[in-house]
UniProtKB/TrEMBL annotation:
<feature type="active site" description="Proton donor">
    <location>
        <position position="152"/>
    </location>
</feature>
<keyword id="KW-0326">Glycosidase</keyword>
<dbReference type="Pfam" id="PF01341">
    <property type="entry name" value="Glyco_hydro_6"/>
</dbReference>
<dbReference type="InterPro" id="IPR001524">
    <property type="entry name" value="Glyco_hydro_6_CS"/>
</dbReference>
<keyword id="KW-0119">Carbohydrate metabolism</keyword>
<protein>
    <recommendedName>
        <fullName>Glucanase</fullName>
        <ecNumber>3.2.1.-</ecNumber>
    </recommendedName>
</protein>
<keyword id="KW-1015">Disulfide bond</keyword>
<keyword id="KW-0732">Signal</keyword>
<feature type="signal peptide">
    <location>
        <begin position="1"/>
        <end position="27"/>
    </location>
</feature>
<keyword id="KW-0378">Hydrolase</keyword>
<keyword id="KW-0136">Cellulose degradation</keyword>
<dbReference type="InterPro" id="IPR036434">
    <property type="entry name" value="Beta_cellobiohydrolase_sf"/>
</dbReference>
<keyword id="KW-0624">Polysaccharide degradation</keyword>
<comment type="similarity">
    <text>Belongs to the glycosyl hydrolase family 6.</text>
</comment>
<dbReference type="GO" id="GO:0008810">
    <property type="term" value="F:cellulase activity"/>
</dbReference>
<dbReference type="InterPro" id="IPR016288">
    <property type="entry name" value="Beta_cellobiohydrolase"/>
</dbReference>
Length: 320
């Protein structure tokens, strides 16, 4: 986080004290995390960066380091991140000390990936999820962050019954309220699917029902391949059906060649523009980690969801 400099004059000497904003005296105030930091955080422990570090003699190392591992991208948190408060706190704390803006993904809703199935799991119960997401938000605290809340959670409604949908809406609404109350300098974006999944008017209804009013905005194209232009068209259409328009972000990690015929490790996809402000949406972000498998499918057959593959990464670098 940018530092607040206070000039103190005493006994004829001017003293400068550099204090992290989240430690400054007085109550925390809601801020713009993109303005209180000096750029997006590059995670030195991302899956691609860890692979590069552990494979110094691999011929693919240089390309993966230069094209992927050295770029800012999100870190995903789920039931593998235990205890969640420590995991989140360490991540945002390290980014804060570097004066950079971290991007986090909360991915632990019970019954997640109900339609796709490759990333199933999540917290064991609604009560467990509420505890988990509360601890997540508290760990972010007053520090700046971008948080994408529960990819696919609203798109999956077609694979759920009415009781399950109502239960999920309650959990999502609770999650957004937690970030609003406990992380005043973070922007939370509720996932809103992608341009080819759910009709814009239906997605607007789902976002509203899941508590979008308490979020900064919504996220589009997470882990998918639609071009930014297609996502912007969809985002505008969603906004036209909302009670009040909201900003949105687009995942550009793998949309360089646009979409193909499948969503699960399809061939012929390519890296998109790296994380930056503007460009149609409020931000273009690498939310999906390039090279992380979508599941045991496509050109990632045999590679579990979330596992980094240098072969998948190389396909994205070369666009084949």
């Amino acid at each position: 986080m940018r530092r607040i400099v206070k000039s103190l004059v005493a006994t004829g000497l001017a003293l400068a004290a550099v204090i992290p904003a989240h430690q400054a005296a007085g109550a925390a105030t809601t801020g713009n995390p993109t303005r209180s930091t000096s750029g997006f955080y590059v995670d030195p422990d991302s899956n691609p960066a860890t692979w590069v570090r552990n494979n110094p003699n691999d011929g693919r190392k240089t390309a993966i380091q230069n094209s992927i591992a050295s770029k800012p991208m999100a870190r995903w948190f789920g039931n593998w991140s235990s205890p969640i408060g420590t995991a989140v706190g360490n991540f945002v704390g390290t980014a804060d000390r570097a004066d950079k803006l971290p991007v986090l993904v909360a991915y632990n809703i019970p019954g997640r990936d109900a339609c796709g199935g490759h990333s199933g799991g999540g917290a064991g119960s609604p009560a467990a999820y509420r505890t988990w997401i509360h601890d997540f938000a508290v760990a972010v605290g007053n520090r700046p962050a971008i948080v994408v809340v529960e990819p696919d959670a609203l798109g999956d409604f077609n694979c759920m019954n009415a009781d399950q949908i109502a239960e999920r809406n309650g959990m999502l609404s609770y999650a957004l309220q937690q970030f609003k109350s406990n992380a005043p300098n973070a922007w939370a974006y509720l996932d809103g699917g992608n341009a080819g999944w759910v009709a814009a008017d239906v997605m607007a209804q789902r976002l509203t029902g899941a508590g979008l009013a308490n979020a900064h905005g919504f996220a589009l194209n997470v882990s998918n391949y639609y071009t930014t232009a297609q996502s912007v068209t969809y985002g505008k259409a969603v906004n036209s059906h909302l009670p009040a328009q909201k900003p949105y972000v687009v995942d550009t990690s793998r949309n360089g060649n646009g979409t193909g015929n499948d969503w699960c490790n399809p061939p012929g996809r390519k890296l998109g523009v790296t994380s930056q402000n503007g460009g149609g949406p409020e931000m273009r972000l690498w939310i999906k980690v390039p090279g992380d498998s979508d599941g045991d499918c496509g050109i990632g057959a045999g590679i579990p969801a979330g596992t980094f593959s240098p072969d998948l990464a190389t396909h994205l670098i070369n666009g084949n």
